[in-house]
TrEMBL record:
It comes from the Eukaryota. One of its GO terms (molecular function) is protein serine/threonine kinase activity. It is found in: Secreted. It comes from Rotaria socialis. CDD domains: vWFA. Transmembrane segments: none annotated. This is VWFA domain-containing protein. Keywords: Secreted, Signal. Pfam families: VWA_4 (PF25106). One of its GO terms (cellular component) is cytoplasm. Residues 24-222 form the VWFA domain.
Amino acid sequence: MAAALHVEKPAQPQLAKHDSSILDLAFAMDCTGSMGSYIESATQNIRAIVEEIVTSEKSDIHLALVEYRDHPPQENTFVIRVHDFTGSVKEMKGWLEQCEASGGGDTPEAVADALHGVLKLSWRPEATKICVLISDAPPHGLDPNCGDGFPDGDPSGIDPIKTVRDMAEKQITLYCVGVEPPIVPYRDFFMTLAYLTGGQYVPMVNAKLLAQVIIGGVREEISLERLMKDAEEDIQKEMAQAEADGINEEEITARVNRLLVTKNLRVKQMENLGGATSSAAKELYSKCVDMSELRSRYKPEPVPEPVYHSRMATRASYRRGAGLMDKVKTDCAGGDDANSEEEAPAFAPVAAPAAPITEMTYDLREDEAVSMAQTERIVQRMRYKK
């Protein structure tokens, strides 16, 4: 097992064992030609990312990296390169420095192989397990109209839907960072992957914000993991009773949310406007047993016009303007997002000359009631708890 991670941080008292978080954080990164700015951002910020998490969450972190490109003849360098978990930030930084954005061939890339490589990493059983997948292209076998050199699926035979369900079984939470706009036609697919593991899809239009997303997402996940451990028995009882009553998924989530709110449990929340899971991902694609079934049902989204935002508009109006409503429910219990115009000010599309969406941030709120979106993710993950 790799040694504990050593980073410079402010002096603090010796921590009791139960005060620290054991965290395994893996990156699956598209290393084809269009991804240079994201590789550079990860390389420049990896030490700051780790130091922030260690200092704020008192974490023992191990890091891993899976680089991926594509299969021959589309790409002749490598399909994936796997760097298993290390406790050394210097080693991780060295791996990133060796990454080079090059090649790629057709539009799809070896996403399936990358996810399988992540699944096979040396995850510590007791750790909070998070994978950050950074991508701007779909897997093979999803969209026959995108110039796919392997339209029947990944030539390795790996099925990304089955692989992600295996990740969920191992309690690996997947964050899909989708580089927009190129990923937009396949956004529902990546939302589905994240949803199946109880994770999040995060739209990304500015590589400089990658560090903020990683820090915010990891800190939110650690807080959810702590909540689940503290309230696991009560959540399982509530879910079992709800299922015995024969109620639908939405009402199960609402019941668990009421339980958590009544217990006054508090968590961290990263603002993730535009990342709300679509109804297609939740109600259709996540029910598919494999990639073949999903492909037969999948409808790529059109790339939208550029979106502008203002901090003086609501989250609901942002989603409507960005074409993301699609029956998405509000994070607040008891209402539809389309009617929830009294939410706190957030980004939303407005007429020019508002600032472009590239200025969006992913602010982390430190002490919040558990939202419906978070509860939905908790319920999804609890289903895989042994």
